Amino acid sequence: MTILETGGERLLAAVRALLEQKGIVSTNEIMERMAITDSASPGQGARMVAKAWVDPAYRARMLEDGTKAAEELGIPMRGMPPLGVLENTAEVHHLVVCTLCSCYPRAVLGYPPLWYKSAGYRARAVRDPRELLASEWKTFIPDSVKVRVVDSTADYRWMVLPERPSGTDGWDEARLAGIVRVGDMIGVTVPGV
Ligand code: FE
Hints:
The chain has 193 residues and is mainly alpha-helical. Helix content is 48%, strand content 11%.
């Protein structure tokens, strides 16, 4: 363990103790939040995407307010930063990044992949997103489609609503949710069958 890590843990312990002493947040609340984060997974976001694909009214609500749409499916969002949803279309493809650190909609996608936090991803996503998607994920966005890079922050977290792939007519929500991967909801990949 480095000096920095040791210092960081002591600082964390000190801040937690202060928050408890001042009655701002209790140990139980911290434990509850850790349990929620530990139990979250990309499957939560995939359920939202699948429902949006089959239910236009839900899709509209999800684009309007991602937090409410998540809660509608029983996903705990209390105390989380607001969730925004970016819709991919034939005209625009969204890519989510946190240029500053690693802000990520953990409630609906779980813990971020390691690459999401890397300096390389954060820089290249902004500098040349098409090149990044093509070289690292073999995701080729046609020139006719605009690529929009969106910054997740401490105040607002983003997820992508990908386009429903062809060949999925008549599929139910559970089957559709099964083809939605975490990268599809960050925008590095697109769902396919
Ligand atoms: Fe961040």
